[in-house]
Give the backbone structure.
Amino acid sequence: MPRYQATLLIELKEGILDPQGRAVEGVLRDLGHPVESVRVGKVLEVVFQEENLLKAEEKAKVLGQTLANPVMETWTLEALKELP
Amino acid sequence: MPRYQATLLIELKEGILDPQGRAVEGVLRDLGHPVESVRVGKVLEVVFQEENLLKAEEKAKVLGQTLANPVMETWTLEALKELP
């Protein structure tokens, strides 16, 4: 079966306080690179086997729904590619 | 000045042990969604002002170099867009 790699982004919803992002903002300001805001999320690179690209996309969506907390987070399937 | 949003991915280099990814693998297996591997990284959504897209790209690269640990991590500028 072909192998696929899905890149899933899991980010905090708008309005959810992000202390880690605030900390990064402070570090960047102290280093002389002031920015307006930073939000920190997770990126997951998941490798799995599936019959074809269509089924791989379905599986990647199931993974996103499974791994994100629907109350506080949103997920995006950023990329899906077949591995050689 | 226009505002830009940069999406930076910061991921562990190949060969660096990723216990968080291993834990996610285990959770997915227990939930009936077995996968071959999971690598967990960070995604940073950074908003800043800059004169134009070219300078914004330069700034985003500086941010990537600043925020990633060159010994253990790689960074990618996944997206850069002007905000309305």
